[in-house]
């Protein structure tokens, strides 16, 4: 069964300092990876989608994918307190579904 | 921007009753999804729906579950009868194309007593 593991479980950074989140997946068969975030009580907001090894930037959010090492990361440049949320990594599986990690709770201190 | 709306935000029902969760997807989207998240656990895929048909479902999509989108109206998830383990937040999502990142609603919290 395909799995997605996220680390760390929680992360606290100061406003303006780079935040880095990690995700490892169980096999390299997927060709699409997404980062979402979820503010408390809200729905999921898609941040970055990445489909090939390397880097993909969307504003202050940059994803790095390395399928050989089964790893995708998210780096948040100049995080603000409003970026405090749960960040979810998701891997496409088959044609239709996403497999989600358990999330990283990010807190950005002013 | 476009949004997926879920109604109601919270529903409380007694075990054994029927419940219908409603989702108003983005108007021009063609692919519809339901995900389930039990408190403190990972979000898990339930079902995908396209062109009036279930395309894929997970083992969590029990026989008591059904989905439909009659005449392009709400995309619904019906559970009949409900069980205690159905208590969770149910997220609806939609996308325009296959493989596109789905847009998610804010979820409906279902409490089965």
Write up this protein.
The complex is a heterodimer of chains A (110) and B (113). Chain A is mostly beta strands. Chain A has strands at 4-7, 10-14, 19-25, 33-38, 44-50, 54-58, 61-66, 71-76, 85-93, 97-100, 104-109. In chain A, the strands form two sheets. In chain A, strands 2, 4, 5, 9, 10 and 11 form a six-stranded mixed beta sheet that branches. A five-stranded antiparallel beta sheet of chain A has the order 1-3-8-7-6, with no helix packed on it. With 113 residues, chain B is mainly beta. Chain B has strands at 5-7, 10-13, 19-24, 31-37, 43-50, 53-57, 65-68, 75-79, 88-95, 103-104, 108-112. In chain B, a hairpin with a 7-residue loop joins β9 (88-95) and β10 (103-104). The mean pLDDT of chain B is 94. Chain A binds chain B through residues 32, 34, 36, 41-46, 49, 88, 92-103, and chain B through 4, 31, 33, 35, 41-45, 48, 55-56, 58, 91, 93, 98-99, 101-107.
Secondary structure layout plus pairing:
The complex is a heterodimer of chains A (110) and B (113).
Chain A: E1 4-7, E2 10-14, E3 19-25, E4 33-38, E5 44-50, E6 54-58, E7 61-66, E8 71-76, E9 85-93, E10 97-100, E11 104-109
Parallel strand pairs in A: 2-11
Antiparallel strand pairs in A: 1-3, 3-8, 4-5, 4-9, 6-7, 7-8, 9-10, 9-11
Chain B: E1 5-7, E2 10-13, E3 19-24, E4 31-37, E5 43-50, E6 53-57, E7 65-68, E8 75-79, E9 88-95, E10 103-104, E11 108-112
Parallel strand pairs in B: 2-11
Antiparallel strand pairs in B: 1-3, 3-8, 4-5, 4-9, 5-6, 7-8, 9-10, 9-11
């Amino acid at each position: 069964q395909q799995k997605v593991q996220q680390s760390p479980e929680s992360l606290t950074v100061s406003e303006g300092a780079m935040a880095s989140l990690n995700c490892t997946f169980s096999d390299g068969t997927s060709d699409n990876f997404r980062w979402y975030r979820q503010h408390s009580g809200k729905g999921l907001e898609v941040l970055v989608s990445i489909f090939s090894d390397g880097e993909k930037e969307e504003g202050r959010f940059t994803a790095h994918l390395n399928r050989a090492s089964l790893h995708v990361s998210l780096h948040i440049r100049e995080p603000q307190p409003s970026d405090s949320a749960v960040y979810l990594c998701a891997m496409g599986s088959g044609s239709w579904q996403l497999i989600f990690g358990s999330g990283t709770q990010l807190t950005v201190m002013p | 921007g476009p949004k997926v709306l879920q109604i109601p935000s919270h529903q409380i029902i007694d075990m054994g009753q029927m419940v219908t969760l409603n989702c108003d997807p983005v108007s021009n989207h063609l692919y519809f999804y339901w995900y389930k998240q039990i408190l403190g656990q990972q979000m898990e895929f339930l079902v995908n729906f396209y062109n009036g048909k279930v395309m894929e479902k997970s083992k969590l999509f029990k026989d008591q579950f059904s989905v439909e989108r009659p005449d392009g109206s709400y995309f619904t998830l019906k559970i009949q009868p409900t069980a205690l383990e159905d208590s969770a937040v149910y997220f609806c999502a939609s996308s325009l194309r296959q493989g596109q990142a789905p847009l998610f609603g804010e979820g409906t919290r279902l409490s089965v007593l």
